[in-house]
Amino acid sequence: MKLVTPFKKSIKMPPEYVPGKCNIGARGRAIRLTTGLGIIAVFIGFDLLALRSVSPVFRLFLFIPFYVGLLTALEGTMSFCVLHASRGTYDLHEPGGMAFGRSRTKMEVESEEWKQLDRRKASLMHLEAVLGALILVGLLALA
Known about the structure:
Layout: H1 5-10, H2 26-50, H3 63-78, H4 82-87, E1 89-90, E2 107-108, H5 112-142
Antiparallel strand pairs: 1-2
């Protein structure tokens, strides 16, 4: 028995594209989640180790990497890529987990209504990432 077998069974992910809910597959999710968490960890470490002597106002510039890291991690946890949503595409079998580049499995979203649902979900995810980044930056600026 493989160690990952119980974990794979616990993931509740639709096997197909669902408008406004799922537009990337398991590989894309994994790569986005690890990339997002890595970005956040690197810049928190950078702040704690290198920016202690810098003004808290200057440390507010960490908003941008925190926003990118949180958005990427959200994409991984929600099975939804905002870049695919903006382009009107989905890719459940991404070979590299990236929304850019050439993928033979990328498909076009068929309905304008479905594209609208995807764009609405993407907007909500952007808002969540902005709020999360503001909270992280605020906490580090006060620390």
